[in-house]
Amino acid sequence: MRSPDLLRHAWAVASKDLLVELRSRTAILSVATFVVLVLMVFNFGRDPTAVSNVDLAPSILWVTFTFAAILALNRAFQIELENQALDGLLLAPIDRGSIYLGKLIANLIFVATIEVIGLPLIALFFNVRVLLAPLVLVIALATVGFVAVGTLFSAMTVRTRFAELLLPVLLLPFMILPLRWAALATGLLLAGRPLSEVHGWLNMLAVYDVVFVVLAILLFPATVNE
Amino acid sequence: MKLLRVGHVINLIALLLLAGIYLRALAYTPVEASQGLAQKIFYLHVPAAIWAETAMIFVGLASVFYLFTKDPRLDRFAASSAEVGTIFCAIVLTTGPIWGKPIWGTWWSWDARLTFTLFLFLLYVGYLLLRNAVPDPGARARFAAVLGICGMCEVPFIHLSVYMFPTLHPMPIVLQPGRPKLPGSMLTTWLLSLGVFTLFYVGFVLQRYGISDLREQTEANG
């Protein structure tokens, strides 16, 4: 399959998912509300006099995004279960890789939307400066990594018992690494350190992204082929 | 059935040899100067750790070949290796804190190698949970293979990442560049113990493989 076709088909799959979401807006509103609630839990679950905001902000940011992303990822293949929509998708004369890429793009846009909503809220509630270009880069790199693995895993877990529970159990061991690097980089950036100090973490995140996106494209057919 | 019995015999031999190793470690191997008797756990801890990690690599490799050949024997081997790996991980995670308490003064520290073993353990548990959650045997094998391959590919990342953590854990003394830095008698005991753990791995995997063989026959006979 030629690569322009691969991307065109991927975009077709992604835009279908995004259109469904745009029409109903249920998932995005639920997850956005969830983000606000998690931030409130954080606020009430700590002693503000003991730990300063800037020390806690990286953890708050990444724990919130992790949980929100897992909720979003569960949904990616759930919507294909109704009326055997997945079979229809698989019957389409397109490469399996483009189905995966399409799902990945839709999930990335979905999770990015959540992050765009969450980031200003973190800035507002915890009084930290988050609108830094390097921080956006860190968030983007980390998100690609765990959404790539999450999209692959949700294609499997959705057809198991306890899908909602199994996805986080399988995914979290794969999320912790990019999360750790991203949290360390975020901490340095929020403390006003220059980009050159987080260079190493950015490289690790980029390598992780490349390895797992390629791996997921190769492995995805095994999760849907009978 | 035959595999089951062979595995059983191998395990019994390994168990006897393990008792021998401990006799040798306690009576005929010198006591380490700074750690005292606590160091004896090293003969159990390190071989188990080596096999816990190697088992994951075997799971990953078997999974790769399974996806190409669709040979159910490879899937059964991967499942067996994962279960045995989980047990070895559990041994590492229990013996580690027992050693850590007298030497470090704490049962647990978020140390590089402890974190790595915990990661590995959680990967194994996730793998086994996934296998249990898929009723269809074909889908179960394919899903498990996908997860096994991802797990194998994550291992180098964890390795790389944990070495950036500050560590309290002793540095490698056997598998390191140059000569092993421990007295000959300790090295001999350790190598013997590694041999015994290799026997355990083979024995357990054979037994586990034999059990899944039997289960399949029972299911086929209705």
Separation, N- and C-terminal Cα atoms of chain B: 18 Å
What's the total count of β strands of chain B?
0
Number of domains of chain B: 1
Percentage of β-strand residues of chain B = under 5%
DSSP helix fraction of chain B? over 70%
The ordered string of helix (H) and strand (E) elements of chain B is HHHHHH
Number of helices of chain A: 8
Biggest β-sheet of chain A: count, sense, barrel? none
Low-confidence stretches of chain A: none
Give start-end ranges of low-pLDDT stretches of chain B: none
Q: If helices are DSSP runs of H or I spanning 4 or more residues, what is the number of helices of chain B?
A: 6
What is the largest interface, and how many residues per chain? Answer: A-B, 29 and 26 residues
Percentage of residues assigned to helices of chain A:
over 70%
Structural class of chain A: mainly alpha
Oligomeric state as shown:
heterodimer
What is the helix/strand order of chain A? HHHHHHHH
Total beta-strand segments of chain A: 0
Radius of gyration of chain A: 18 Å
Describe the sheet with the most strands of chain B. Answer: none
Give the overall shape of chain B.
globular
Q: Label the structural class of chain B.
A: mainly alpha
Overall description:
The complex is a heterodimer of chains A (226) and B (222). Chain A is an all-alpha fold and 226 residues long. Chain A has one domain (3-224). Helix content of chain A is 81%, strand content 0%. In chain A, helix 5 (96-126) crosses helix 6 and helix 5 (96-126) crosses helix 8 (199-224). Chain A is globular. The two termini of chain A are 21 Å apart. The model of chain A has no long low-confidence stretch (mean pLDDT 87). Chain B is built from six helices and no strands. Chain B has helices at residues 2-28, 42-69, 72-104, 112-133, 137-162, 184-221. Chain B has one domain. With 222 residues, chain B is mostly helical. Chain B is 78% helix and 0% strand. The A-B interface holds A 149, 152-153, 156-157, 159-162, 166, 169-170, 172-174, 176-177, 180-181, 204, 208, 211-212, 215, 219, 222-223, 225-226 and B 67, 119, 122-123, 125-126, 129-130, 133-135, 138-139, 142-143, 145-147, 149-150, 153-154, 157-158, 160-161.
